Amino acid sequence: MAAPSTAPSTDEVALWYHTLDLPGRAPTPGWFDLRPVLGRLPWPEVRGRRCLDVATYDGFFAFELERRGAAEVVATDISDHHQWDWPAPIREAAGDQLGLIAGDKGSGFAAAHAALGSRVEKIEVNVYDLDPGQLGRFDVVVLGSLLLHLRDPVRALEAVRSVTAGWFMSVEAISLPLTLLARRRPVAELARDDSVCQWWTVNAAGHRRLLEAAGFEVISASRPFAEPFGSAHPASGARGGLRDRAFRGLCRATLGGVGVPHSALLARPRR
Predict the structure, then answer these.
(1) Tell me, what's the pLDDT at 240?
(2) What residues have CB less than 8 Å from 155, skipping those under 6 apart?
(3) Contacts of 211 by beta carbon, 8 Å cutoff, 6+ apart
(4) pTM of the prediction?
(5) Do residues 230 and 31 lie in contact, with contact meaning Cβ atoms separated by under 8 Å?
(6) How confident is the model at residue 241 (pLDDT cuts 50, 70, 90)?
(7) Is 42's pLDDT higher than 80?
(8) More confident: 8 or 268
(9) How many other C-beta atoms can be found within 10 angstroms of the C-beta atom of residue 218?
(10) Is residue 105 a contact partner of residue 95, using CB atoms and an 8 Å limit?
(11) Please, which residues have CB within 8 angstroms of residue 251's CB and are 6 or more apart in sequence?
């Protein structure tokens, strides 16, 4: 289903997740700004290819695929905040609470789609339900910062593999301390805070292992990097306590900047 013709204006979007460059206005006040790290990702060639952006949210990767010359771009996401993979203790109320903060799910994508005059097609489907019978298969698939929000990331990655005919680029949040302490051993930490809908945070080796367990062969990897906070993110202007300042210092020393530690992998389905 394509973005509706009655899209909200960019000023009507309650919360921007992505920082986007849109014609005739300042960049959107996103929670995260991926623009500075685009060059650090292991992009495959997308020009002339059929591409998929999974869990698109405001559409940053979908619109980037289009900008890079993809012949066709499909973007998928859930249709409602209640469909997040919420932990049981907050499952009933969490969708309502997030809706009050972020507004309607997909409003940012619709506003950006209209502002860009984009041809990206958006389809509302959960990552667990990706089906080649419905969507077909894609030359390039991109998945950004979703696995930590999923109770079963391997099951989701198996669904991604089912629609991947060529390349898969996974850009995912990782634990910097676990990455430094266990460089080669895949490990993960289970989040202690239900309210942010985060489950497993893996180290860089764990990110690779998740893809391998789902049937992918990793071809290349970026060095870990910091995904910068956008102008609207609460952490972007916060000084924080001693622990926060120490973590920021560690990020600067090891990743070259401040933000959420990430790694990026380029893979293909194992034959």
Answers:
(1) 65
(2) 128
(3) 157, 168, 170, 218, 265, 267
(4) 0.94
(5) yes
(6) confident
(7) yes
(8) 268
(9) 18
(10) no
(11) 176, 226, 257, 258, 259, 261
Which pair of tokens denotes residue 22?
A: 């849109």
Query: Average pLDDT for residues 118-146, to the nearest whole number?
Result: 98
Give the 3-state secondary structure percentages of the chain, helix then strand then coil, rounded to 5.
Answer: 35, 25, 40
SS3 41: coil
101: amino acid identity, one letter: I
CA distances from 134 to 119, 125, 140, 162, 169 (A): 19, 10, 17, 11, 21
Question: Distance between CA atoms of 13 and 8, rounded to whole angstroms?
Answer: 7
Q: What is the rounded average pLDDT for all residues in the chain?
A: 94
Size of the chain, expressed as the number of residues it contains: 271
Whose tokens are 């952006």? That residue is: 53
- Nearest alpha-carbon partner for 31 in 6, 8, 58: 58
Question: Cα–Cα distance between 66 and 46 in angstroms, integer?
Answer: 9
- Give the whole-angstrom CA distance, residue 133 versus residue 152: 22
- Convert the pLDDT of each residue in 191-237 to its tens digit: 988 888 999 999 999 999 999 999 999 999 999 999 999 999 987 66
Residue 6 scores a pLDDT above 80: no
Q: Is 93 helix (H, G, I), strand (E, B) or coil?
A: helix
* 137 Cα distance to chain centroid: 20
Tokens of 137: 């298969």
> Which residue type, as a one-letter code, is found at position 138?
F
Q: Tokens 């970026």 belong to which residue? A: 222
Q: Tell me the C-alpha distance between 167 and 268, whole Å.
A: 5
Query: 127 or 5: whose pLDDT is higher?
Result: 127
Residue 231 has what pLDDT?
A: 94
Which residue shows structure tokens 């489950």? 199
Question: The tokens of 205 are what?
Answer: 């080796």
